[in-house]
Every structure is written in C-alpha cells, then in structure tokens.
Design brief:
This protein has 13 helices and 24 strands. By secondary structure, it is an alpha/beta fold. Strands 7, 10, 11, 12, 13, 14, 18, 23 and 24 form a nine-stranded mixed beta sheet that branches. Strands 3-2-1-4-5-6 form a six-stranded parallel beta sheet, sandwiched between helices. α3 crosses α4. The C terminus is likely disordered.
C-alpha cells in the first residue's frame, strides 16, 4: 500500500504520527499546500518510526484535481487519503479516481441549502455529489470510503453493530458529541481556540441541520430527510467519563445522511455540544456576514470573510500541548429487543477494546468461552468505562426484563488526558439501559 495523504493540519499530522507506528504500508506521502508544514509532519513521523524513507513530503494544490492526479501517479499511490477540510473533497475525490487510486476521507462533499425552504427541506445534501459518482468508481474497479473518521466513521460502525447484534428494532440512532476541553495561553489564561478548523465549524453549525425520519420517508429513503433552523431543539446530554451535562443542539453532519441508507431506524439525528459562548459567537458572525465565503473587496484585494475569521484564530495543529480535558463522540441507540433481553456482546466488542467482566473482575471474552457462556446464562450486560491508565473499570448491569421493552445503549469513543499535551485516544464503550 502506497498512501498519498493530502493535508498536514491537525488531522493529517495526527494521522501520520499514528501511521508511523503501523506496518501496513510501504510509503506514506504527506502533501500540503505548505511544503514547510508537510516537512514538519514528516519529521515528526520519522522521529517516531526511524529514518527508513517511508515518509516523504510534497507540495500540492488540493483545489486542482489534475495536480492531485499527477502527484498520486508520481509516487505510485494506491490510496489517496483526504485529510483537509471539506472544501477540497471533490477535487481530491476526482483526482484520485483519475489516478486509478482508492480513496478515503473523513468529511463528505458540501451541502447547498434549499433555495426557498432552507429550514424545512434539504437542497444538495452532504455527500450527494460523491454518492452520485458511485457508478464511475464501480466501473473503474476502485473503492471510495467516505467518512471514515470517528464521526462520521466510528459512529456509523456503532450503528451497524447495534443493528446487527443488540436490537431487533431501532427507534433512534442519535450521535452526540460533547467535551470539557480547555485551551490556555502561555500565561495560563483560558483562551478561545477551536480544536479543529473554524471554517468547518462555521459550515457545519450555521447550515440547516438535517434529520431523518422513517415516518416521513414512506419507503423512500431520500424522502425521509428534513432540515431545521440552526441550533434547533437544545437538550442537555449527560456525557460519561466526568464530562457531565452539556447542552447539545442539532448540527448538520454526515451520520444523518449515511446511517439511514444502510441501517434500519425510526429516526437519525446528530447533536453537538457547542456551548453558549460558541453559539453566541456563531450567531454574531452570521449577523455580521463574516460567515460568508463570497469574496469581498478590501482595498483592492479580494478576500473571503470566513477565511479571515479562520486565519486570525490559533492554528488547531498547534494547540494540543495547551489543551486539557476530555471529549466524547458517541451514539445513543434506543429501540427494542425480542424476548430474552439484550445479548452479551461477543469477543472484544469487535475491536473496540472494551472487555466484558463479571462482578469480581473475571474477564469474559473470545479467549474465555466458558466464562462468556456462563455470563450469558446469568443474564448480565456489562458497561465499560475507561478509568485510569491501568485498565478499564467495568460494572455489571441487570439485563432487561425478559420481554419486548424499550432499551437504550450508549456506544462512545473518547479522548482522555491528565494534563497539557496528554490527550491520547483511548477507546472505550459505555453502556446504559433503561427499562420502562
């Protein structure tokens, strides 16, 4: 596998550092509009892996599909990995196909609001431009994996797992994202510094959010999508791992466009814990027109207001060492299971690194079939939450009553850190169940 990764910002830099500790590829090209930034990422990855020539830096204009194609061919890339913001999805997507490479991204092509009823009906939805090209990719014998980050990505895996293993009928797939992250300046003062691209935050949060409902669909998936005003339906969601209650609002996000196409559910939603400060700031940017991407003339220079806002804020790639706290990306699944209650998840939760334990700490997983079978007979569902550096604290929860009743299950993945610069991804699963 020869990977061309485009983007050496916060996401691309982190991806390269993780890849440096893996052996599934023979070449990893880090390309960015700024060659200096790409070289810095290569230096950091090489410091972890050693100087074996696996990582190389390159310069590319991600807005030019021909440039993407040429660079992919130059390095014989088998996979193009898109790690830049969604403005550049389509040129990179097209460039990869033209180069005969497979493609991966973590955000999908941008939406366009409905011209007349933006807070009722979708216009061009997230990912529509890419999904419309599916036939071309199939004809070329190439694979494009869209939305393969944590959310979208891991959240969609949770949805598939819940549908296949935990529920007979799903009422709602509700992705929830919240955090208590704080960034400090050099003097220790708390400062406003988004953890990812402010350009993307504005795009996601001020666009009309999308929801999907089976009742509206009437058998046609596309008919089930509807839009709401920005920041609609606030709810206080109690996040695990000490994050606590966070007010969340509807936000446009890919899960709502992906899950209904492949997972049967009554409703699909995405809510983000923005916080009062961020919501007030976004509303003010909108009122002032600073969220616009249309260029304006400033003393003879054409500039995009949104680009200016993003440029004056700290670079997300540089704030990690000054960030403390925790973040949670998870999926709240509500639905029903037939007589027998919720089954015990198999093995190690299919790679989520959570374990099942009986009270007293005995592990029940794929390596211990007898214990796993005994746990199943005892009728216990286990909720696991990451606690401390030494392992996972697990609590046994009583199984749902042996009849068809509503139940809920939280599946989440979060980052936890004990201090500045120590935010490291730790997979964990939290489970809760309510029987009424």
């Amino acid at each position: 596998m020869r990977v061309l990764m485009i983007g050496a910002g916060g996401v691309g830099d982190a991806a390269a550092k993780i890849a440096a500790e893996r052996d599934f590829f023979e070449l990893w090209v880090v390309a960015d509009y700024s060659l200096e930034r790409a070289e810095a990422t290569v230096a950091a990855a090489t410091a972890r892996r050693g100087s074996d020539g696996t990582f190389v830096a390159a310069q590319v204009d991600a807005s030019d599909p021909a440039a993407v194609t040429a660079l992919a061919r130059e390095h014989g890339a088998t996979h193009v990995f898109n790690a830049v913001d969604p403005r550049f999805v389509m040129p990179i997507f097209d460039g990869a196909l033209a180069a005969g490479a497979d493609y991966l991204d973590m955000a999908m092509s941008l939406s366009t609001p409905h011209p007349e009823r933006p807070h009722e009906l979708p216009g061009v939805k997230l990912g529509d431009l890419q999904l419309a090209r599916s036939g071309e990719w199939e004809a070329a014998g190439r694979l494009a994996l869209l939305g393969i980050g944590v959310e979208p990505g891991l959240s969609d895996v949770f949805a598939r797992y819940a549908a296949d293993e935990l529920f007979d009928e799903i009422d709602e797939l509700g992705t929830r994202d919240g955090a208590n992250l704080v960034v400090h300046d050099d003097d220790g003062n708390e400062v406003f510094a988004p953890g990812f691209s402010m350009w993307t935050i504005i795009e996601e949060c001020l666009n009309p959010p999308v929801v999907w409902e089976r009742a509206r669909a009437g058998g046609d998936v596309e008919a089930g999508f509807a839009t709401l005003p920005p920041f609609a339906d606030p709810e206080v969601f109690d996040f695990p791992e000490g994050i606590g209650p966070v007010e969340c609002v509807h936000v446009e996000h890919e899960e709502v466009l992906l899950m209904p196409r492949w997972v049967d559910a009554g409703r699909v939603t995405f809510k983000y814990g923005l916080g009062e400060q961020m919501i007030s700031m976004l509303k003010m940017l909108h009122e002032l027109g600073l969220d616009s991407t249309d260029p304006v003339d400033v003393k003879g220079v054409q500039v995009s207001p949104r680009d200016v806002v993003a440029a004056v804020l700290p670079d997300p790639a540089t704030i990690g060492p000054r960030m403390t706290g925790k973040t949670c990306a998870g999926l709240l699944v509500t639905g029903r299971r037939a007589a027998g209650g919720l089954p015990l998840p198999r093995g190690r939760q299919r790679g989520l690194d959570a374990r099942l334990r009986r009270p007293g700490g005995r592990v029940a997983d794929g390596d211990q079939p007898r214990r796993r079978a005994r746990d199943a007979r005892d009728g216990r569902l286990v909720g696991c939450g990451g606690q401390g550096a030494g392992g996972l604290r697990c609590e046994a929860l009583p199984r749902a009553a042996r009849c068809s009743r509503p139940a809920g299950l939280r599946l989440a993945m979060g980052d936890r850190g004990a201090g500045p610069g120590r935010l490291q991804p730790v997979p964990w699963v939290t489970s809760s169940m309510v029987v009424s």
